[in-house]
Amino acid sequence: xxxxxxxxxxxxxxxxxxxxxxxxxxxxxxxxxxxxxxxxxxxxxxxxxxxxxxxxxxxxxxxxxxxxxxxxxxxxxxxxxxxxxxxxxxxxxxxxxxxxxxxxxxxxxxxxxxxxxxxxxxxxxxxxxxxxxxxxxxxxxxxxxxxxxxxxxxxxxxxxxxxxxxxxxxxxxxxxxxxxxxxxxxxxxxxxxxxxxxxxxxxxxxxxxxxxxxxxxxxxxxxxxxxxxxxxxxxxxxxxxxxxxxxxxxxxxxxxxxxxxxxxxxxxxxxxxxxxxxxxxxxxxxxxxxxxxxxxxxxxxxxxxxxxxxxxxxxxxxxxxxxxxx
Length: 326
Description:
Blueprint: H1 2-27, E1 32-37, H2 45-57, E2 67-72, H3 80-89, E3 94-98, H4 100-109, E4 115-119, H5 123-126, E5 139-143, H6 146-160, E6 166-171, H7 177-189, E7 193-198, H8 203-214, E8 219-222, H9 226-230, H10 232-242, E9 246-248, H11 251-255, E10 260-264, H12 266-281, E11 292-293, E12 297-302, H13 303-308, H14 315-318, E13 323-325
Parallel strand pairs: 1-2, 1-3, 3-4, 4-5, 5-11, 6-7, 6-8, 8-9, 9-10, 12-13
Antiparallel strand pairs: 10-12
């Protein structure tokens, strides 16, 4: 009887000793973010760093107050479902990703882990949220107004190349159908003959540019794709060989030798994801966090590329550019 009483007292004492340690461990648990990148750490450096900067501004320091689990598709959209499943199995606290293929992969992988996205297409039309004000479900994030930008992009293309009449709409196989249809409609409204050309990468780039030659394209509108961005060096090289003016969505392309871009600041959008992650880690639910629309836009021109194409950029257009690369 006495031995049993001593055993019970010892067990109670041990429990009282361990309990505070368990509470302390729980209180100091470091949150884990799953980062699903479309490219690799090099091609995705600017957007990846913008997200990390946003976290730092909110007090989340990687390796100290937060851990980030990285998965990179390396320009291959077929890898996204498996990588998204890996992050779900790793039981991260929140997943961040961008682009239609990654959004769809995340949506299919989990309905419980919060997901924060950057989308260049309408996420309501994609079917992953209920509406912009109250997304519902486990997904929220930042979206651009691409459907509203396409006319502006083509107008700028016509200003720089006034005689253009035949435009190739270069798109990835994974493009949202609404983006392609809006681009085609906008081109026709501006009196342009539009031809849709699909490409993914590698050999498909070769066949796409062969098709452009066959269609006698006079300019190219590169529709937004995270995988074009991941392979942008190769893409820009093909366009240079074809010696055609091209419009892009983001200035990364222009910095790497493309002619011009007009669209939302992709780095600002990725930095904005950090605000959602911050609120979610502090207890907010994605279903209650409204979708933010892009508010910062950039018009960038590469004069060196224009000169190589024999183009003279009108002063009125140069005056409107946010950045001119010499």
